[in-house]
Amino acid sequence: MILCYNKIMKLLIKILLVMILIISPAKAVSFDVLVLPTDLLSTKENYYNFNEMSEIISNDIIKNFNSSNGKIKSPNLYEVRQKLNQNSEQKTLTQNVLNKFKTSQNIDYASLKKIGQNFSCKSVLLISSYVTTNKNSTKRGLWEVLEVSSDFDTVYPYRLETSIVLIDTVNDIVMWSNHYSTKLGNNENIFSAQNYVEANEWLKKMSLYSKTIIAPSASQNITLRFFPKAIRPIENKQTENTGGALKFDKTIPEKPQNKNKKDDDFFGEMIYGI
Predict the structure, then answer these.
(1) pLDDT tens across 5-57, in order?
(2) pTM for the model
(3) Cα–Cα distance between 193 and 134 in angstroms, integer?
(4) Nearest-angstrom CA–CA distance, 269 and 272
(5) Comparing C-alpha atoms, which of 39, 78, 49, 43 is closest to residue 62?
(6) How buried is 216 (Cβ within 10 angstroms: 0-12 exposed, 13-18 middle, 19+ buried)?
(7) I want to staple 65 with a disulfide (CB 3.0 to 4.6 A). Which of 74, 83, 143, 186 is the partner?
(8) CA separation (Å) from 26 to 20, 21, 30, 73, 239?
(9) Domain map (residue ranges) of the chain
(10) Which are the contacts of 206, defined by CB distance < 8 A and separation ≥ 6?
(11) Contact present, 147 and 133 (Cβ < 8 Å)
């Protein structure tokens, strides 16, 4: 009788344990990424008072991260600025790190580790965006170039260059990086705005370029680094090892037309650097 009772109790305990495992929700894996555009702490000095391109791209990527069903989380830029403004030492450290990356593309791993710890993030995403010409390698802000070229009627083959690097601050390594490049201006290399309305049209085009090309590419590739099986990568046949850092040479997409547009109209092929 006692033996039978013990067997029944053991069976009930096993059933109870199985039910607990089934009913209890599994803790989802989540990664916190601190997104830092190089113009994060810069004062808006451009005539149009537009956000700089690195900020526009960062906002789009952060929005994608925070819409990933909890897989990747990022504080928005307002929260980051607010927290840095409360700590002058951290703010100065962050500004120095961003300036260094902006001017030389060099990464200060030790400082990024401290900054990441301040935000409880083990991964940091650096984003730099600037304009160059074939005349020289001087890096200038997008809206600064638009203002100057408009005032002096200058015509150059301007290009917008964007570098994005994901850093693992625990192991001090680059998890993923990519470079995006696009031509600015029309077929005659004219990149100008005679008034605020025309300048605002350029803002819309650049925002569309970020939203439809750069942000989706970066967001999905970064997701692949954290969750290798979460997205099926597009197979690219390459004869050389690019280390996952492809150069994107894309034209700025035009403003979407009406829904009755032809099927062969598109914003540009999406390529993922795996």
Answers:
(1) 566 666 667 676 666 555 544 456 889 999 999 999 988 778 889 999 999 99
(2) 0.76
(3) 21
(4) 10
(5) 78
(6) middle
(7) 74
(8) 11, 9, 12, 18, 42
(9) 27-230+243-249
(10) 53, 56, 142, 160, 252
(11) no
In the CATH hierarchy, which fold is given to the domain comprising 27-230+243-249? Double Stranded RNA Binding Domain (3.30.160)
Our measurement of the distance from residue 16's CA atom to the centroid of its chain's CA atoms, rounded to an integer in Å, reads 46
Task: Tell me which residue of 134, 114, 133 sits closest to 124, measured CA to CA.
Answer: 114
Tokens representing residue 120 in the block:
């409880």
What order of strands is seen across the sheet that includes strand 123-132?
Answer: 72-73, 31-37, 123-132, 159-168, 173-183, 247-249
Residues in the chain: 274
Q: Dig out the tokens for 192 from the structure.
A: 């100008």
Q: What is the pLDDT of residue 201?
A: 94
